[in-house]
Specification:
Largest sheet: 10 strands, mixed
Distance between the termini: 53 Å
């Protein structure tokens, strides 16, 4: 055995140990078969030309193709792959052994992990719209000894195998909608795991098919390269200040002129007056705010900011890559950075505009309601676009191109 292989084995073992610890820190337990697959598959064979240390960093997505400045293909970060595979396996009694899987978005690495999980009696088909990506996946899978994975070059918005149903469809590209073809190819009681954008925020949802609808089983915070082809949906950005942007993903009618100068108005900061532990799932709070605020304000939006703008104090968002925010009657509000006292924290809101104090208090009141309600987690159903209003379950409805998405919150 070569020195390189020994180094690879050691780095892979260390990576998986770290992923197991990361799961535990989040209150999750890694399934033994997912851990075994991660220990078995040589990730470096799917990241040729990348230093071994980089290939085996648990938090590192390896970019494999760019189009200009845009990333169009990558080998996803191991922590995210592990969590999504866990979601998929948890949704089936007995895990994935013997299941037939369709992967949308090819890199090769995730397909090989799925091949380990489904075993000899299962199958894996992986599809990507980009021939460069599928050619690379074929080569990498063959080099790693997974030549029995079927690789297809096609737009996954269309049926891949029209007469076939899959037990699991797992999507490794950021989706704005759920096309009819995915549901049509999913077996009854089958599961779709998809990074779905709602209100401009992405969650990996595990969704079980029940007739013509999908019902959520679990969800995790995630981020992915955007879907290409017929399923693409362009996210619009409006600059609110230098290095500060509003993310508009549900076709909100917001213009640059309407938000110019908002941050130059005096700022109000309001705190919820709560004391929360580090493990609090604030991603659930963000969707709670989206659901509550979208019913009350002119526009629910997402704030993102460059690090320079945060360092300069132009904005103090909870997370600079995507923080819940609202526009209402000329006032702008957003969830602010946490206030720590020892090992616990408070949540709050900042607002700018003529009714800044009212807007900040409105947002904070919803934060208190979430905490007082036991920090409920979101649930989601996906129904066909033609579903009449009277046939929709109770909840907040987002109308997409092919579907009607309904968000609710489970009682704590």
């Amino acid at each position: 055995m070569s020195v390189d292989m020994v180094t690879s084995d050691g780095l892979r073992a260390a990576m998986v140990d770290g992923l197991v610890a990361d799961h535990a820190a989040k209150g999750l337990t890694m399934r033994p078969e997912v851990e075994a697959a991660l220990r078995a598959v040589p990730r470096e064979l799917y990241t040729p030309g990348v230093p071994l240390e980089e290939a085996y960093r648990g938090d590192n997505a390896v970019i494999t193709k760019r189009r200009g400045a845009e990333t169009v293909s990558s080998v996803s970060a191991p922590w995210l792959i592990a969590e999504m595979l866990g979601q998929a396996a948890d949704a089936f009694d007995g895990g994935l052994q013997g299941r037939h899987v369709l992967e949308v978005g090819s890199g090769g690495y995730n397909a090989s992990l799925l091949r380990e999980l489904v075993g000899p009696s299962g199958s894996v088909t992986t599809v990507d719209i980009d021939p460069d990506v599928t050619e690379r996946a074929v080569a990498c899978l063959a080099a790693a000894g997974y030549g029995d994975v079927t690789v297809v070059c096609a737009d996954a918005e269309q049926l891949i195998e029209p007469r076939r149903r899959f037990d699991l469809i797992i999507v490794t590209a950021g989706a704005w909608d759920v096309p009819e073809s995915w549901i049509a190819q999913l077996a009854e009681d089958g599961v779709l795991v998809v990074p779905l954008r709602t209100f401009g925020m992405t969650r990996s949802w595990a969704l079980r098919r029940v007739g013509d609808r999908l019902v959520s089983h679990s969800q995790r915070l995630c981020g992915f390269v955007a879907m290409q082809g017929a399923g693409a949906h362009e996210m619009r950005y409006v600059d609110i200040a230098d290095g500060v942007h509003l993310r508009l993903d549900e076709d909100q009618p917001v213009s640059a002129e309407s938000v110019a100068g908002l941050l130059s108005q005096p700022r109000e900061q309001v705190w919820a007056g709560v004391s929360l532990p580090p493990r609090t799932v604030l991603a659930d709070l963000d969707l709670w705010l989206a659901v509550r605020l979208s019913a009350e304000v002119d526009q629910f939006v997402v704030l993102s900011a460059q690090q320079e703008a945060v360092d300069a104090g132009v904005v103090t968002p909870a997370w600079r890559f995507g923080t819940p925010a609202a526009l209402h009657e000329g006032t702008f509000s957003y969830r602010s950075a946490l206030a720590w006292t020892g090992d616990r924290f408070d949540v709050g809101a900042c607002a700018h505009g003529p009714d800044a104090a009212v807007a900040a208090e409105r947002m904070v009141a919803h934060m208190r309601d979430w905490v007082d309600g036991g920090e409920p987690s979101p649930a989601l159903q996906v129904l066909p676009a033609a579903t009449p209003d009277g046939d929709l379950p109770a909840g907040t409805v987002l109308d997409k191109r092919h579907s009607r998405v309904v968000l609710t919150f489970n009682p704590a």
